[in-house]
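stuck on this fold:
=====
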Amino acid sequence: MLVIRTLVRATCRLDRPGRRHPGALWSQLDRQFFWRDGEYRKLAELHSDYTVEKFEEVLGAPLLRRRSEDRRWEELFFRGQEDWVQAVVPANGNTVTYFSVTSCSASFKPTFWLPEGGPIKLYESTLASAGRPPFSLYPWPLRFRYAVYASSPHAYFEWYSGGHAWSFKGFAWGFNGVCGRGASANPYDFGFFNPNVRVGMVSRLPKGMKTRFREGVAVNTYAEWGLSTGYLSRWPPLVPIGVDEFIVSNN
């Protein structure tokens, strides 16, 4: 892709009489074929504990806002061409407590890096491969929350929160069935039933789930939260992580 892009740029610089302005031609080609690179760069600029203004500067105005049921939190949803960004702020606050990115296309593959860890590339990483090196190197365990619902999309997430080396932040990654139908292992092959929510430490999963199930679940969502949550070790959703079925189906 990089070679193709370089050749196109070189072609656009050839200035021939009567041809369209090369800069305009490149802009059109860039928007049509290489726009994802620009979106990846935008997402790489965002982190928890940034202000709402920073998110709007990078992503534009949110498509919608909504309050949590207890009225303590507000969600902002930014819609991309093939992804959704969710930002959560305290009611009447200005600091993004945590945010998530969900890819709704197997062609949209932004990469996120964990502190002292490996990359998480949406739709290429799996639960088993995301975030390496092994978390056994750190004193806090890698945890999971796998949810199978009777009438709603399944959701499988793993998360970790750490101390100074991790900037006192928490990170989660996983599969949001709203935007990834068919991209995960069949949970019923591993003893799940409807409805079924399992929470615990990855190290204590049965062997089949720790290996074959996690290897079969493609990661399409990344999330992080920071000091503004006030309690790093809890399961992150002040509201559920990621875009939900209602928002996707109505927008």
User: Anything to note?
Assistant: The chain is about 20% helix and 25% strand. The chain has one domain: 20-250. The radius of gyration is 20 Å. The first strand starts at residue 64 and ends at 67.
